[in-house]
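Annex B. Sample input.
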Amino acid sequence: MKVTIIGGGNMGGAVARGLAKGSIVKTNDITVIDINHQLLSVLKNEYPEINTATTPQETVKDTDILIVAVKPWLVEPILADLENGIDPERQIIISIAAGITFEQLHSYLGIDGKTMPLFRIIPNTAIAVGESLSLICHENASEEQINTVVELFNQMGATSVINESLMNAATSLTSCGIAYAFRYIRAAMEGGVEMGISPSVAKKMVLQTLKGAVALLETNDSHPEEEIDKVTTPGGITIKGLNEMEHAGFTSAVIRGLKASKI
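Annex B, continued. Sample output.
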């Protein structure tokens, strides 16, 4: 299986590294295309067997999976330029551009886009460390093709296959959501510092606490409120802290932030 990635930036580079670390695609069957020679040089130093190029035309003809990992406004000119070199009977196209719909991809690809296997995938930045939650929706794809793409991205964390209609909402939870998680961590660290704990120690405490919370929910397959009930004894300090956060609008602020970030 040959994979070509157009775009060697943060997301495209992370996907290339994730595939190279995995066992499904051979490293010398991965090609990354970018006009930035420095990005390609860094990637090549880390994985010498990865192929690099600055123009896609020749490489795209031989690939099985084409991953478009560029800014949304660059998707149209790139696909329009490649239209004649794409084989809809043999190739899969994956777009990692947020907000670009299947309807737009059809338009950019011409008539072939209406029948060829298309995927939209939105990872989050944790893909760089193999812990992304990658959202996947698909069109005109066989079960085998769907399983192949899911397997590829499961190497870089976990995946969730959803309908395109849910893509924007799910992006708020996962791709934007990682920033919201960081903001909570920062706020908790600052609270710890105000109470006399050093920043580095506060960070360590908060991170391990979050790891523990996730482990409890995954192990027990429980609702968060069930785990909260185990900690909030009547008249105790935890319920006082939770109530104070709710008075300040904690839950509503999270919900409003998620809805505001829905494209």
